[in-house]
Amino acid sequence: MRDCSRVFGSRVYLEPKTPRPVKKGDVILTSMPFAHAFSCNYLSMYCDACAVPLRERILQPCGGCRVVWYCSDECREDSQTWHRLECLVLKRRKHNPPNSFVRLLARVIFRLREGGDRYVEKYCEKGARRFRDLMNHYADLKTCEDMKPEIDKTLTELRHYIGERNLPNDSDLLGIFGRTLVNCFSFMDKNLLSIGCAVYLAASIFDNNCTPNCFVTFSGLKVEVRSLINMPDLDLAKCYISYTDVISTSAARREVLYKGWFFLCECKTCLDEERAKYENSIKCEHIHCISNNARSMWTPQQLMWN
């Protein structure tokens, strides 16, 4: 809402919101993970609580499972919110832990069991999100035959990992799966190498645009959303990030977005047919060539079967 209101007697006076100008590169939002999980290859290379790397500080394994590592007693204590229940099941799989997404799902379930459904993260003065506010694409997941084998495989692995008694009912489980899947970020180190995945409540408010005006960076586990342009007045509803690699072709981006986020992108960049022609062609070396031979964009039907 762009205006604030004050009531005097029976009359309402609109009070304009004070503009918040933003410069290119400014941080417009920060968020800490609701749940996170390091990739298996990096479990012993980063503190599980603060993500400080092994090269900067000595790490010690958890005394219970010996799978996750910590840089200090403080970090070990802070991590008990999510690791206390996880430790018991992870101990059985210490030589062969599940992949990061399965462990992320388990952490989400454990956190919700411990009251995480009441946790609220603010993204502006008057706006906040809970886990239940995230989109779950329940209907899409139930009807998407292409994804069914992967969903079944993931949930079967989850059952083997934490046990049936730790799982919610099937309907709630699919809702948790959907919210985690479509709101999952890959968090990165200083070299832009993906080292794990996480769910951020506040940062999940941003929609996709293939010509974004914001971008995402990471400082440890904290995600920072920064502006790519100067804005006379910050309006989060008009801020966009790219869910995919912006240098990919329109067809490739649309395929990834359709299969991963269940929508066919219709942003200006993806619908630019002239741009698409050049994306799928190379310049002829003949200076008099007038050929315009380029591959056309995929249709929604083609996307569904590729």
TrEMBL record:
<dbReference type="InterPro" id="IPR002893">
    <property type="entry name" value="Znf_MYND"/>
</dbReference>
<protein>
    <recommendedName>
        <fullName>MYND-type domain-containing protein</fullName>
    </recommendedName>
</protein>
<keyword id="KW-0479">Metal-binding</keyword>
<feature type="domain" description="MYND-type">
    <location>
        <begin position="47"/>
        <end position="87"/>
    </location>
</feature>
<keyword id="KW-0862">Zinc</keyword>
<dbReference type="GO" id="GO:0005634">
    <property type="term" value="C:nucleus"/>
</dbReference>
<dbReference type="Pfam" id="PF01753">
    <property type="entry name" value="zf-MYND"/>
</dbReference>
<keyword id="KW-0863">Zinc-finger</keyword>
<dbReference type="GO" id="GO:0008270">
    <property type="term" value="F:zinc ion binding"/>
</dbReference>
<dbReference type="InterPro" id="IPR046341">
    <property type="entry name" value="SET_dom_sf"/>
</dbReference>
<dbReference type="InterPro" id="IPR050869">
    <property type="entry name" value="H3K4_H4K5_MeTrfase"/>
</dbReference>
